[in-house]
Amino acid sequence: MKRVDENPPARFPQRPIAEAQGLWWVSKVKPRQEKALAADFIKSNIEYYLPFVTKVTRRKDNNKPRKSVLPLFPGYISFCAPETGPTSMSKTGRIVSIIEIRHQRRFSEEITQIYRALSSGVTLEPIAASYPPGTAVYVHTGPLRGVQGVITRIQDSQRFVLSVAGLGQASMVIDAAFVKPIPIQ
């Protein structure tokens, strides 16, 4: 585990988001690879924004506090690339997919608001989707797009166990960000 002061900066280079050079993209990264990808971006001189939150927990053995610096949006990092697109980003082996941002101005405004809030000391926390067990959902993005199922339990704050009847009563663990509730008709 890295010490708090060993983490990469949330913003590279240190300048206002509105002054970004290139188009914004979002990369979905492999689990727990956000900071490592940020370090790769710094080495390659690629502009990025990875907002962090500090979480304080207590150790079980001696009850001492432990600070952890965690991404506000686990599994995602925003970065800038030329208009031709991100070509060499996948070579790191840390990226699962790259998401094109179609509304650049709106995205820039939204992450600027997050940047300002965190810079001013406001405490933000990631929230998990609040679908209770028994909710019928569908996968709206990713390789399982279109799969429908029922949430059988919540594994942790970011993942559900989804029971899918079409797979022979199989269950799978899926990222909460990939599912949406099926609208009631």
Can you walk me through this structure?
- It is a single chain.
- By secondary structure, the protein is α+β, with helices and mostly antiparallel strands.
- It folds into two domains: 116 residues, Alpha-Beta Plaits (2-Layer Sandwich), CATH 3.30.70; 46 residues, SH3 type barrels.
- The chain is built from two helices and twelve strands, in the order ββαβββββαβββββ.
- A hairpin with an 8-residue loop joins strand 8 and strand 9.
- The relative contact order is 0.15.
- The mean pLDDT is 81.
What is the structure about, briefly put?
The protein is an alpha+beta fold.
Write the layout of secondary structure elements.
Layout: E1 11-12, E2 23-29, H1 34-43, E3 48-49, E4 52-58, E5 65-71, E6 76-81, E7 95-100, H2 104-119, E8 136-139, E9 148-156, E10 159-164, E11 170-175, E12 179-181
Antiparallel strand pairs: 1-3, 2-6, 2-7, 3-6, 4-5, 8-9, 8-12, 9-10, 10-11
Approximate helicity band: 10-25%
Low-confidence runs (pLDDT<50, min 5 residues)? none
The rounded distance between the terminal residues' Cα atoms is 48 Å
Alpha plus pi helix count = 2
CA radius of gyration is 18 Å
How many structural domains can be distinguished in the coordinates? 2
Number of strands: 12
Shape category: globular
H/E series: EEHEEEEEHEEEEE
CATH architecture of the largest domain: 2-Layer Sandwich
State the name of the first-level CATH class of the largest domain. Answer: Alpha Beta
User: What is the name of the CATH topology of the largest domain?
Assistant: Alpha-Beta Plaits
What does the main sheet amount to? Answer: 5 strands, antiparallel
